[in-house]
Specification:
Largest sheet of chain C: 7 strands, mixed
Helix content of chain A: 55-70%
Largest interface: C-D, 55 and 55 residues
CATH class of chain A: Mainly Alpha
Bound molecules: adenosine-5'-diphosphate, magnesium ion
CATH architecture of the largest domain in chain C: 3-Layer(aba) Sandwich
Mean pLDDT of chain C: 96
Structural class of chain C: alpha/beta
Largest sheet of chain A: none
Radius of gyration of chain A: 16 Å
Strand content of chain C: 15-25%
CATH superfamily of chain A: DhaL domain
Oligomer: heterotetramer
Shape of chain A: globular
CATH topology of chain A: Serine Threonine Protein Phosphatase 5, Tetratricopeptide repeat
Structural class of chain A: mainly alpha
Number of strands of chain A: 0
Radius of gyration of chain C: 19 Å
Number of helices of chain C: 8
Strand content of chain A: under 5%
Number of domains of chain C: 2
Low-confidence stretches of chain A: none
Order of helices and strands of chain A: HHHHHHHHH
Number of domains of chain A: 1
CATH topology of the largest domain in chain C: Rossmann fold
Low-confidence stretches of chain C: none
Amino acid sequence: MTIDIVAVRAAIGRLALAMERDFELLNKADGALGDGDLGVTMTRGMRAISEKAEDLPEDLGQALLACAQAFTKSSGSSYGTLLATGIMAIAKQVKGETEVGADRVPELVALARDQMQARGKAELGGKTVLDSLDAVAGATAALSDPAEVADAAARAVTEALEAFRDRKATVGRARIFGEKSVGLDDPGMLAMERIVKALADREG
Amino acid sequence: MTIDIVAVRAAIGRLALAMERDFELLNKADGALGDGDLGVTMTRGMRAISEKAEDLPEDLGQALLACAQAFTKSSGSSYGTLLATGIMAIAKQVKGETEVGADRVPELVALARDQMQARGKAELGGKTVLDSLDAVAGATAALSDPAEVADAAARAVTEALEAFRDRKATVGRARIFGEKSVGLDDPGMLAMERIVKALADREG
Amino acid sequence: MKKILNAPEAYVDEMLAGLTAAHPEYYRLHGDSGRVVARAKAGKEGKVGIVTGGGSGHLPVFTGYVGEGLLDACAIGDVFASPSAEQMADAIRAADSGAGVLRLYGNYGGDVMNFDMAGDLVEFDDITCTTVLLTDDVASAAPEEKEKRRGVAGMVYAYKIAGAAAEEGRDLEGVTAAAQKAADACRSIGVALSPCTVPQAGKPTFEIADDEIEMGMGIHGEPGVWRGKLRTADEIAGEMMDRLFDDMPVGQGDRVSIMVNSLGATPPEELYILYNVVKARLEGAGATIVMPLVGRYATSMEMAGVSFTMMKLDDELEKLLTAPCDCAFWRVG
Amino acid sequence: MKKILNAPEAYVDEMLAGLTAAHPEYYRLHGDSGRVVARAKAGKEGKVGIVTGGGSGHLPVFTGYVGEGLLDACAIGDVFASPSAEQMADAIRAADSGAGVLRLYGNYGGDVMNFDMAGDLVEFDDITCTTVLLTDDVASAAPEEKEKRRGVAGMVYAYKIAGAAAEEGRDLEGVTAAAQKAADACRSIGVALSPCTVPQAGKPTFEIADDEIEMGMGIHGEPGVWRGKLRTADEIAGEMMDRLFDDMPVGQGDRVSIMVNSLGATPPEELYILYNVVKARLEGAGATIVMPLVGRYATSMEMAGVSFTMMKLDDELEKLLTAPCDCAFWRVG
Ligand SMILES: Nc1ncnc2c1ncn2[C@@H]1O[C@H](COP(=O)(O)OP(=O)(O)O)[C@@H](O)[C@H]1O
Ligand SMILES: Nc1ncnc2c1ncn2[C@@H]1O[C@H](COP(=O)(O)OP(=O)(O)O)[C@@H](O)[C@H]1O
Ligand SMILES: [Mg+2]
Ligand SMILES: [Mg+2]
Ligand SMILES: [Mg+2]
Ligand SMILES: [Mg+2]
């Protein structure tokens, strides 16, 4: 089983639903360490993408580029811009392809991570979405079976969230909370946990 | 017994004391129907006059003019300006005299009332200090014995206060309180009651 | 409401010290009462003088409007309290350059008595004075008792018109007539959302519930026409325009200037939201808007709320309104 | 805190509609995102463009400073939220007249990422961009981490300097260098007395007791350096000046401009009271004050509080600071 536009559309559907469901959860997490808009960013962004889902071209690069642009237009929040940056990086990489194997996942996630790091100018290990992606890229490396990739990704993203929970935030609005951020989930890592689980179809 | 500069100095002393004593009372009455500064106006004004008391000339006209000016400089409140206007009117009338008989009181009070009315452009009967002065002028008319004048003035000013209590204010800041002013003393009438009683030495 | 100050008694004097220190090119203290502000550069010789006065706490009103094409001098009292007649007389003297002085101010009892008395005082200096009173607040008395109305932000328009007329070289009669015409052409209405605190009183000027507003409330907290639940910007602006139009109808071809004024804390963002309705209503009535003023022109310290002032123009008023003026808070041309 | 608005979602769009309707001689909406404001009259052909951007709720920052001798265009987000990269790209396009565009804005994470991405987007249009970030808030990071500091009211000085440099006809490199010099010469510190309410959030940005203030608090309510009892104006101003002087010593013969800025609700009266201390401290250190700015230059809606921004001048900066500029909120010359 490979990833094609049909799979992308299905994933968009699952993700959009998950983000409607997690609206309050993400706002609340961001409210504790930031400005409380992460749920808004994610539902708005996914609604914008959902509206385009049916019209997405077969070319995965073009399709993902359209998704990134829809997300970017929907808000200017940090997370939205970072996600769009990551999706755009993947889009460029798969331009012209209509099918992508599960074995490409680690490479593409790492690519997104790197581009997002360049955009946000933050270090790895800073308790941000980058650490979630880093964990996913690491855990899926060398895997190629779709189910195994999905399992590993879902497990890794949750483990990263838990592993970083008791560390201090060093980046973005959360940084100003300093010691108070210890024990609280980074909102961006929490959001990425929900995103990866929805994409991997490994909820609950 | 006539009124000379010694009597004026004694009266200033009594009045200044009374105004210190009634500071809160007058602020409160003005607070209910205005901006709550009438006690401030009166103590400030009387302090300014007291400072000059020893240096006042024998000429009652000159002495009262100095009192009026001291009061005017001390504040710009309506009551202060009205009082100064009244004192100035009396000052002009007694210019050059060093003694004034008690029989002149009704004439001088009426004069003050008229000049103050011209300054404030308010009708008699409007529940203001003018009505207090009008009552005093009326009650003392045709009297000449100092003690009788003092008694009549003190009685009249209290009666006026009571008579107007249940009427509606029509002038100054109190006007905007409309019906709510019924049952409340007009602060300026209350102040005049305290003033007249202190001047007449008929406290309590 | 918290205030940044030293001693309450020092509030006004320190404020004036800072104002004149920050803008020495516009303002200077005149005389020794410490409460008279005059232009840093005297007006043209032989120009009619214009003075105003009133309580502190309304910046830019009153002192702020001393400047070219505006006022010559201003007497300023304690917060929300009239200056003394002596101070007003000093202001009149500062404004006089031989051509007489217009006293142009708002209709408040204490101010009126003191300016009248100040007029008596300066008679000795052979200064001729005239008076124009602003009575623009439609909420403060019925049309039949128009002369009892308070003066509010309409003052700013009157300063502008009178100032421009004086700058043009008109004589005292001419300047007074222009000011009176401006005063007659202005109507205002305010709505208050929250009170302010007079430093020496130390407590808010009035109490109002967290979800209430008061339509027509005065700038010192004088009672308005109704108090009720907070409404939408469109509803608030709509009612305010209704009340202005009821008092001074506006129709096809009319030219009007409109001021959307913050009473202090209300931010410009909210004024612009209101302006959409103001504009739609005026243009809907067939009028043309000339030089709309949106901002803080007449305030009550940190009070939240807004006022609208509408001035109907004829050619003369429009020319004077758009003529140049310059002070630290307002520049035209 | 009560606000006058219609729907919270409509706040920014209605505000921009009102702003451009009230001041059509200064501002126009550009493009169809509805969130890009450009000069009504385009700048000189071949002039370097200057854009800024950031969240709404800070008027006159950011949009208000679009104007001659200042900015060419501005992308504006929801209240306290970054505009999107697309909107910023549109603003850059509006500002460009072939000589390149300086992105001049405050150091906030979202804004930085979006302006960078916007730069990527306009590369396709062959527009050369440079960047200068304001990091003037000394309370937001230690001197060793100066590059992490937030940008606050120093932005206004940087707009003024960069705008004047561009108007002079300097090239992109020259304008960028002037802006960077201005940014490097600015230090700010703020103190908050009360919060404001973001319309869509509906509740105050922070809570603070009735007798407390927070020194160094950010304009969105970011924690400051201490929270404590309200003090006198002299003590507050004294500590703020201490913190500025600690970060950027000022001595004999220095020429500095100083901004005493209200965060919104704090009235000018209180700013002038503070200015007395500011002036005494600067002159006491032997410095000369050039063009002090006292007023509302960078706000957070109805937040009560003040900020001080100090800019040390050399001949170049002083010349650019005092050069003419003109927008609806500020005029020099
Ligand atoms: N510079 C950065 N680099 C990496 N991740 C970042 C950066 N800034 C923010 N983030 C991530 O984004 C999340 C916050 O996103 P968001 O709520 O959109 O921010 P804001 O509302 O401040 O724009 C953080 O929890 C963090 O995971
Ligand atoms: N126009 C007027 N004519 C007569 N008396 C007046 C007038 N205005 C005010 N007063 C009197 O002055 C009193 C209020 O004085 P004061 O507190 O000094 O006024 P304010 O503080 O409003 O200047 C009133 O109670 C009334 O007796
Ligand atoms: Mg956020
Ligand atoms: Mg945000
Ligand atoms: Mg009173
Ligand atoms: Mg008073």
